[in-house]
Amino acid sequence: MDVIALSRLGGRHLVTLHLLLDSQSVTRTAERLCTTPSTVSKTLNQLRDLLGDQLLYRQGNQLLLTPFAERLGPTLHRLLSELNNLTSQGGFDPETWQGQLRFALRESSMVWPIGPILGQLMQEVPGLVPDVWNKDEQGLAALAAGKLDFVILPHDQSQPLPRQPGLVWETLREDKLVCLLRVNHPALDKPWDLDAYLSWRHIAIRDQELANPFFEQSLAQLQVRRQISATLPDFGSAAALLRQSDLILTAVEGWAEQVMSRDLVIRPVPFDYGAVTHSLVWYGPAGEEPARRWFRQRILQLARELG
Predict the structure, then answer these.
(1) Residues in domain HTH lysR-type (predicted)?
(2) What is the pLDDT of residues 9-33, one digit of tens each?
């Protein structure tokens, strides 16, 4: 252990570096630290000297991370989480706590089931400022890097999950799949079965981190496949297209019931597709920090109370 070198690297340096790696912006880091951009730039120059690396470099009007800074991110996140635990032994007080809680999820998950949960959390913790990202912008990799607190996503229970060290998955609530069609869809005039399901074109939902849905594998085992005519980023945009076409959307029931209107109809999925769940995912070592632990337990409890 190089005690002399460590003595030069203070907590202020570490926190500033963590925020810089997170935001890749001197200005936003200064705002979060309630200081000036020039002070942050001075600290960054000190870090470059202490660590012997550029850390961030400018390309056009963007700051990008060096390979060393990319590797440093998860280690720094774990270290600051441990240090925060040492200074938070008094526990967590919902009424006085102030800070951001950073989520990543599909936009449709804000409709169901996260919208009601988040609304209740904001009543119980007045100082809570949710910072919500689209899961395609910040996903599971951002958890270990310290850029997110939680990821929430629907998936098939039999679907292979990404193998990323340190991630903890817990069932938020179980759900099932349904089919959505526009109210005057021609398929509604005939019996609804597997042949009918397969005879029409479908909307697929893109996911860059999860494997193909298990229900697609179930169809493959039956030696049949859907005709995909559109691939969209989220259920919400898919529902908008449904209203203007003869496409079919296979989606989670909880969300479908929330967006039901006079121009959409729900039909059951006409084959065995397994079980569907919404999972709450966090990075294990950071999840034991008092505030994150309280929020995690409360989120899970509120999900159960939704029924």
Answers:
(1) 12-66
(2) 778 888 888 888 888 889 988 888 8
